[in-house]
Amino acid sequence: MTENLSFEEAIRRLEQVVKELESGDLPLERGLELFQEGIALTRHCNALLDGAEARIEQLLEQNGETVIAPFEPEE
To answer: Which of 3-7, 12-16, 43-47 has the lowest mean pLDDT?
Structure first.
């Protein structure tokens, strides 16, 4: 299920999961289901971020060497 979500969709769903878990008004089984979903969402987001980082490093490759530079957005 999570593999089809964009990064933004996964973050939004993760925020919903956290809110529901923080409410504390859950049966144990529901809490475990949400925790499992949260872990899956976190792993999915990390994988997407790792992929984006790899793409950025490829774009910054110069003369056969990867130049890793901090991202500085234009103002």
So the answer is: 3-7
Cα 48 to the center of its chain, rounded Å: 6
How far apart CA 11 and CA 23 sit, in angstroms, is 18
CA pair distance 44, 29, nearest whole angstrom: 23
Enter the DSSP assignment of 3. Answer: G
Q: pTM of the entire structure?
A: 0.74
Residue 51 structure tokens? 């992929």
Helices 7-23 + 28-59 axis angle, to 10: 150
In the predicted model, is pLDDT for residue 73 greater than 90?
Answer: no
Output Rg (C-alpha) for the chain, integer angstroms: 17
